[in-house]
Amino acid sequence: MKISSNLFDARINATNILIELSIGEYEKLVKEVIANNEFQRKRVRSSKTVYALLREDILKQCVIPPIVLALTTEISDAIQSNEEEFIKKISEQKDHLVILDGLQRTYTIFDLLADLRGNNDEITLERMLSSKLRIEIYVGLNRLGILYRMLTLNTGQTPMSLRQQIEMLYLDYLSKPTEGIELIKESDGKMAKNIDQYNFKDVVEGFNAYLDRDELPIDKANILENINSLEKLSRENQSSELFEKYLTSLHSVIKKLVELCGDASISEDYEKENGTPFGKNATQVFKKPQAISGYGAALGKLIDFEALKQIDDVSTISSSLVITDSNEFLEEVNNALLWLKNNSKKIGNAQRNYFTFFFRDLLNPDADTFKNPVEASKSALRKYQAQNM
């Protein structure tokens, strides 16, 4: 392993080290990383012809473009020291490496080595292991820097959605969850059925709606918009744990609405007359992403308008919500959503818009519908109709 260059990247406040090493050294460095690192993207199973050509090129000892890594731990002192000390530190901290660019090249190299070992082709294997690669290592990146570089290095490929980026930015909340609340990732393979369980992607979209004051779903924005959103998240989260506060407030409202509705459910007669409802009970209604995103946008707007002083106010308000007839409430909400289904071109967006009006009216101390879910459900539909019809 040999250091060829050392440059400072002022955009992401990190140092870029260009290293020359053998394929054998590279294999030892990253073979455990790709299976264990939460940041790492999935393997691409398509483009077999392209990777077959790459495989042949590697066998012929073609010089492939540098693979780009990031080291998420701080070893600034080692950068300034001698080359031997730096290389030693990199090896010691290899569990903290992330492949920013070159994951598919890495898989191709590892597949080739596995085949050579399986075929007992020792001569070709030794030649391969001694072949040289160029590796760039970014040292000292925070999560935002990692995501920024992932985006800029992979602009020609299928991009990560903004949702994926934010999920990665907030992965710590999965290992250190908010008390009494469980966040479930898609890869967990289970449903968020209980009142204290939420789909992580839905909560992330709701949090993004809070930050943007916009309930519309996250889309595949262009590269610059994605980066700006990530920077905004980083800035806003420096002063307080906004994500935790948002999630706690969301849970306080949904939990209270579910408690007030109890075992109430849409009747069979209602279903026969109107078809499948948006949600048969309060849990099904308010645990859907449309409701969660509507809540996020409403919360942000209420704070902007100074109707609420802080997010923590929501827990106090939600504790005194009142529903006198839970069946009436569920039917009012489903009637409104049925009307939207029959009269809107973009049903999902209309539903998010409705829930934004609902939560704004429900949690606004200056509104006539304050703390009254039934009246808030009626006024939300009227406001949607007035704005869109």
What does this structure look like?
The protein has 389 residues and is α/β, with parallel strands linked by helices. Helices cover 56% and strands 11% of the residues. It is built from 20 helices and seven strands. The strands form two sheets. The protein has a five-stranded mixed sheet, sandwiched between helices. Strands 6-7 form a two-stranded parallel ribbon. Helix 8 (143-153) runs antiparallel to helix 12 and helix 18 (326-343) packs parallel to helix 20 (373-388). The N and C termini lie far apart (67 Å). Mean pLDDT is 83; it is low at 220-224.
Key features of this structure:
two-stranded parallel sheet, 389 residues, alpha/beta, elongated, five-stranded mixed beta sheet, 56% helix
Count of helical stretches:
20
Distance between the amino and carboxyl termini? 67 Å
H/E topology pattern = EEHHHEHHEHHEHHHEEHHHHHHHHHH
Largest sheet features: 5 strands, mixed
Uncertain runs with pLDDT below 50, 5 residues or more?
220-224
Helix content: 55-70%
How much of the sequence lies in strands comes to 5-15%
Mean pLDDT score, rounded? 83
Please count the beta strands (DSSP E, at least 2 residues each): 7
- The gross shape turns out to be elongated
Radius of gyration: 26 Å
- Structural category: alpha/beta
Spatial ordering of strands, largest sheet = 1-2-5-3-4
Describe the structure concisely for a colleague.
A hairpin with a 4-residue loop joins strand 1 (2-9) and strand 2.
